[in-house]
Amino acid sequence: MSGLQIKNVSMRFDLPNGSHVQALQDVTLDLKQGELMSVLGPSGCGKTTLLNIVAGFLAPTEGKIVLNGHDVRGPDAERGMVFQQGALFEWMSVRDNVSFGPRMAGKKTSEWAGNVDHLLDVVGLQDFKEKMVYELSGGMQQRVALARCLANDPDVILMDEPLGALDALTREKMQGLVLKLWKETGKTIILITHSVEEALLLGERLLVMAPRPGRIHKEYRLPFADLGVNQDLREVKKHPEFNERREEILGMIWDMEEEIMGRTEETA
Predict the structure, then answer these.
(1) Could you tell me the residue range of the domain that residue 122 belongs to?
(2) Spatial distance between the Cα atoms of 216 and 209, rounded to a whole number of angstroms
């Protein structure tokens, strides 16, 4: 069976004082191959915890992750991760960073060179391939991180606030690049963000999570990611439904934050 299944996943963290935090509670979700899903919610709703479980960095307390018919039991090249900060090797060139995965897998240069050069073209870094990573801007470093992830040919790409540290203009350009890569590669992508606008633009499915315990609050199926592949993203934002959904979700998350603050005051 192809695709990604998150089956009744719960995650509990036990604390030294004997108490515990229920980070996730009974999360169930099916993603078909090639779907693009954004995940949104207030701080503490378990977004990053869920992503780390899918990546194999954490084992859930209950439930399981199934990818293409087999259980996920740890990190694997079939799942690629792109972090908020690129987690790149600053002492290596751009090309060496992008080719790192295939080289560590023991592939010959003739097996990976063509694909790496193609990916550098796709992300617009062919002219910078011999530059050291520390010489690049933040946006360019995130392009390197995307290309490095794709060089491993993962089935699923996991993105943990990958554009959060970028300035507004660079962020908008990178959003367009993410949509382009999604359509061109057919990869399944899960993207975590704190930005409602970004979640609307980069999710044909958008998941709103609620906190304490982390759980699925509401899911949307949206047209904006498909529209954004061929349209200017600023034009997509003018769509009447875009503004309607943005206000609805902002209100939803605001109410959640207010509830969290109320609980905090009660226990203070």
Answers:
(1) 91-153
(2) 5
Please tell me the distance from the alpha carbon of residue 222 to that of residue 242, in angstroms, as a whole number.
Answer: 9
Beta-strand relationship, 36-40 and 188-192: parallel
Query: In total, how many domains does the chain have?
Result: 2
Together in a domain, 97 and 216: no
CA atoms within 13 A on the CB side of 159: 35
Helix (H) or strand (E) holding 227: helix 224-230
| Most distant CA atoms of the chain, gap in Å | 63
- pTM for the full model? 0.91
Look up residue 92 and give its two tokens.
Answer: 């290596």
Q: For 116-139, what is each residue's pLDDT tens digit?
A: 999 999 888 999 999 999 999 888
CATH code of the domain covering residue 211 = 3.40.50.300
Q: Which two tokens stand for residue 17?
A: 């004082």
Number of C-beta neighbours around residue 121 at 10 A: 13
Whether 77 and 150 have beta carbons less than 8 Å apart is answered as no
Under 8 Å between Cβ of 201 and 33: no
Q: Is residue 48 part of a domain?
A: yes
Provide CB contacts within 8 A for 17, sequence distance 6+: none
Contact status, residue 129 vs residue 93, Cβ threshold 8 Å = yes
User: Rounded to an integer, what is the distance from CA 14 to the centroid of its chain?
Assistant: 26
Per residue in 21-70, pLDDT (tens digit) is: 999 999 999 999 999 999 999 988 999 999 999 999 999 999 999 999 99
Query: Tokens 């779907």 map to which residue?
Result: 35
Amino acid, single-letter form, for residue 223: P
The two structure tokens encoding residue 75: 């990190």
Query: Quick one: 74 and 95 in the same domain?
Result: no
| Residue 73 and residue 3 in one domain | yes
